[in-house]
Design goal:
disordered N terminus; Rossmann fold; 12 strands; 245 residues; alpha/beta; 5-stranded antiparallel sheet; globular
Amino acid sequence: MKKQDKNKQDIDVFGKAIFAYHHHQDETDIIVHSPDFDDDIIPVSVLFRNYEEMPALEKEALNKSYGKVLDVGCGAGSHTLYLQQQKDLDVTGIDISKGAIEICKLRGCKNVKVQDYFNWNAEKYDTLLFMMNGTGIIEKLSNLDRFFEHSKALMTTNGQLLIDSSDLSYLLDPDEDGGIWVDPDQGYYGELEFSISYKGETANKFNWLYLDFPSLELAANKNGFSCELIKKGDHYDYLAKLKVL
């Protein structure tokens, strides 16, 4: 979820890149900027990958999805399309990018909306799906209670929440005993600030949360959810399943 700069309209970077790739096969990368890291890239083709091209965590999440599904941050619609076409599920995809949603419709997604997750309360779902570092939209640890409260309101009695993230503690320097020391005055190490650019245009800065599994589990239990580690990835990433207790 992006923070808006009140002095200017934000740029729909993902929407522009997705539009150009879909219509013109333009493979210009999206550039990711952060004060904490060197610039990185997001190949736009990643947003269009099919099931066989997806990493193991995403495949596992799609395999475990059932019932009525809400695909949060659906991007170009690849997860939505798989669940809709291959599993014949009733899927709603939402994203804050107007351009991305336009392409989702052109690709065949039946039910997609331009919508912020925290403002969406239309229905209840059997599966809430948050992929490609799904915890990112929470932005800050201080927003976890809000996230769980809103998610609980959107879930059916037997509903599940499938979410992936990464533990960034591997980036910290270990002490002589192999542990890590975290400066409490610096905030949680998984709270990052990013901006993204495309073809020379840069969108507003936004906060993004990478959440280690023990912290997710602790917050989930506090808010009345069970939290199960479903699968670990190859690089400190994981998939979790949460259900209301």
